[in-house]
Write a structure and sequence with these properties.
By secondary structure, the protein is α+β, with helices and mostly antiparallel strands. The protein has three domains: 141 residues, Creatine Amidinohydrolase, Chain A, domain 1; 136 residues, Creatine Amidinohydrolase, Chain A, domain 1 (3-Layer(aba) Sandwich), CATH 3.40.350; 292 residues, Creatine Amidinohydrolase. The chain is 34% helix and 21% strand. It contains 18 helices and 28 strands. The strands form eight sheets. The chain has a six-stranded mixed beta sheet, sandwiched between helices. A six-stranded mixed beta sheet has the order 12-11-10-8-13-14, sandwiched between helices. Helix 13 packs across helix 14 and helix 15 runs antiparallel to helix 16. The longest helix is centred in the middle third of the chain and has 28 residues. It is globular, with a radius of gyration of 24 Å. The relative contact order is 0.09.
């Protein structure tokens, strides 16, 4: 058992807590968090991308989703913490589990600044039904986390209108129109990506997410940004003033100000504000709880953003093409490693003008490591890549022209029949989804079947969503749109599709102890024909990088699958070839040649 778990239980006992509830969130309910907030990793050793932890005197369980099952099983081994596989029939809801364990008159502890208001409402109901007490202000790991990382605070920079397509003042005017239509006199925004989008500001407070820690309170005639002084350069202050935004550099002023609001109604999204925010609001204010208007508006990319994104994908495509060329030229020499490949790809991206940083931690995975969907290599425990089997690389970049996310799987040499089948199915599924035509308003659950059908016919599945929304030089995972066959409430990504929504398309196969394969392109939803049945839409593929034809089992592909692959490769060649010459151009032409040529 990890000593940190023992120390946590001691702290619980001292405070009379029967249950302690932990989430993988920060004060802003962010998709990705800084090291300061990685308390679940500190307590459990689990380094995955999502999870919640419940500790009692006798038991400890981590709830996580299918992306992390293999990884969590490895990392929790010997920790004294069990694994709850979310989405499985045998796995209880986390709140039902706590209800079963909570004694009458007991106590549930949690940190109210990292637990959402939605969760707080459920915890409050649980406490009321059992006459229990909620201890909402206890950050127990902080009591004994001696080497806790510091919060990162970085200066903001302005993303110019030539990149955003709209000024911050106009975005604020639109937001106030949205508030008026919802009859909300005030609005609270805690989500840092929404604030960054609204104000056309970016920073580097969270690795791979160009955001800054802040809160906003918007009223009819006043808008206030609460953030640290470190974010506010003189130029940024001028930018905010021009947009009609006041800056307050004390976070506690935010909680004080919202507790003294005099308005009759306020717009919040309960899942995207923390419990402390909900608890601070005056009891007589009517809460309008729904999707934040900024979340939907930033999800729909405008024409300027779409044009810029195409430029970003040319840059990223050149970097990926050069990385693929380098990899295939060197893999049979036997001196490549997962970490060496990660560093090489980053180096090639940095050579592209306008590159800011990676859009997430690169997944560079060989062989059985690729069966862990969110595996990350380690420099200290590097893994050699042998001239056989499959190598998977999932990576992306933030450019001033937008954000990219791409996965490719390449043959390192000889492959088995199972590896070729897995690989071919992921390619087929990716291409078929990108070829969809559908009515505007179709949801991701409907579209998901297009990608899963080749797997399900063979009794296979992949335990992650097929696609997620992608931000514009913002979070690589962006609500409220996604593609998955069943609703996962905590993902908040089931909004219907419309033109301008920018999503990933990334089916895969993961065989524990053997191999993993995934093929991913980014797609833009665009209007298609319009007739008496309504507005039809289609996807335009933005990602530009050859798909390895060598490990394909073409007997699994029908004529249309092959035509889709050939068409994609023609587009890749047409868009990238003007920027290449000599041997690089010849290599790209070979990689983009028709199947069987």
């Amino acid at each position: 058992m990890k000593k940190e778990l023992t120390l946590l239980r001691h702290a619980m006992k001292e405070r009379g807590m029967d249950i302690y509830y932990m989430t993988m969130n920060d004060d802003h309910q962010s998709d990705r968090i800084s090291p300061y907030y990685k308390e679940i990793m500190f307590i459990s050793g689990f380094t995955g991308s999502a999870g919640s932890l419940v500790i009692t005197e006798e038991e400890a369980w981590l709830w996580t989703d299918g992306r992390n099952f293999v990884q969590a099983e490895r990392e929790l081994s010997g920790s004294g913490i069990g694994l709850m596989r979310m989405g499985r029939p045998e796995t209880p809801d986390i709140f039902d589990y706590m209800a079963d364990k909570l004694k009458k008159g007991g106590c549930i502890g949690f940190n109210g600044r990292t637990v959402s208001y939605t969760d707080y409402i459920r915890l409050r109901g649980l406490a009321e039904s059992t006459e229990a007490v909620l201890a909402a202000n206890d950050d127990l790991p902080d009591l004994f986390w001696e080497q806790r990382p510091k919060r990162e605070l970085t200066p903001c920079f302005i993303l110019e209108d030539k990149y955003t397509g709209m000024s911050a003042s106009k975005k604020l005017a639109q937001l106030r129109d949205d508030m008026k239509s919802l009859r909300a006199e005030a609005h609270i925004i805690c989500a840092v990506d929404d604030i960054a989008w609204l104000l056309n500001l970016r920073a580097r407070d969270v690795a791979s997410n160009p955001v800054f820690m802040a809160f906003m309170l918007i009223e009819k005639d006043r808008a206030r940004l609460y953030t640290d002084e470190a974010h506010l350069t003189a130029k940024v202050r001028e930018h905010l003033k021009a947009a009609g935004v006041e800056a307050d550099t004390c976070e506690e002023d935010f909680y004080r100000d919202i507790s003294k609001l005099k308005c009759s109604s306020i717009l919040i999204e309960s899942a995207m504000v923390n419990a402390a925010v909900g608890a601070a609001l005056p009891k007589d204010i009517k809460i309008i709880d729904q999707l934040m208007p900024t979340t939907l508006r930033k999800c729909v990319k405008n024409e300027v953003e779409r044009k810029n994104l195409k430029k970003a994908h040319i840059k990223d495509g050149i970097a990926m093409m050069r990385f693929m060329h380098w990899f295939l030229d060197n893999v049979d020499k036997g001196d490549l490693t997962e970490w060496k490949c990660l560093e090489k790809l980053h180096e090639l991206r940095t050579q592209q003008e306008g590159f800011l940083c990676d859009s997430f931690t690169t997944i560079s995975a060989y062989g059985e490591n690729a069966a862990m969907c969110h595996y990350h290599p380690s420099k200290d425990h590097d893994v050699p890549i042998k001239p056989r089997g499959l190598y998977l690389v999932d990576s992306g970049g933030h450019y001033f022209e937008g954000t990219t996310d791409i996965t490719r799987t390449w043959a390192c040499g000889e492959t088995t029949g199972d590896e070729r089948e897995s690989y071919t199915l992921s390619v087929i599924a990716c291409l078929r989804l990108s070829d969809a035509r559908f009515l505007e308003g179709t949801g991701g659950a409907c579209l998901d079947y297009i990608a899963r059908e080749p797997f399900w016919k063979r009794g296979l599945n992949f335990e992650h969503g097929t696609g997620h929304g992608v931000g514009y030089m913002l979070n690589v995972h962006e609500r409220p749109v996604g593609i998955r066959y069943k609703a996962v409430p905590e993902r908040m990504d089931q909004y219907p599709f419309k033109e301008g929504m920018y999503v990933s398309d990334e089916p895969g196969v993961y065989i524990a102890g053997s191999h993993g394969t995934r093929t991913e392109n980014l797609l833009m939803c665009m209007n298609d024909i319009k007739n008496e049945y309504g507005q039809f839409c289609h996807f335009e593929i933005y990602t530009l990088c050859p798909i390895d034809k060598r490990p394909l089992d073409t007997s699994l592909m029908d004529e249309h699958d092959i035509a889709l692959l050939d068409s994609y490769h023609r587009m890749v060649y047409e868009r990238l070839s003007p920027y290449l010459s000599g041997e690089e151009l010849s290599w790209l032409e070979k990689m983009c040649a028709p199947v069987g040529a």
